[in-house]
Amino acid sequence: MLYAAAISLHLLAAVIWVGGMFFAYMALRPVAAKLLEPPQRLPLWTQSFDRFFPWVWLSVIILYVSGFWMIDSVGGFANIKPYIHTMLGLSSVMTFLFAYVYFLPYKAMKQAVMIKDYPAGAKQLARIRLVIAINLSLGLITLIVGAAGRYLVV
Asked: What's the CA gap between 47 and 50, in Å, rounded?
């Protein structure tokens, strides 16, 4: 029962994080770029990230707590399959990239928007966009590994 709850929370947290990136990158980004000028687009992004990033932090915490709990419940790292190590490695890179976005370009973009320095804000948004593209790719790969890894790796 506890294992089922851990897997459910783990999956839900992954879907929130990766699904949010997918929506932001594949739906919101192109529409915002098409319909809005930078003075409107940058506040949209800062306020969207203000609402989304706390969910990402919560998801990261849930992913690590549930993941390590599940690893421990099967006897530790010596008893897990290679695909679990792959998921953990990819998630570690994703977490580092998210922390980079949160603490550097996102904070700088918010500051630029507050003082209405839209060229500086746009430069930071471009950095964020690149990292989100990378993290989205890693997240989709991680989801595939998590779902199909036991069938793909011996």
From this structure: 5
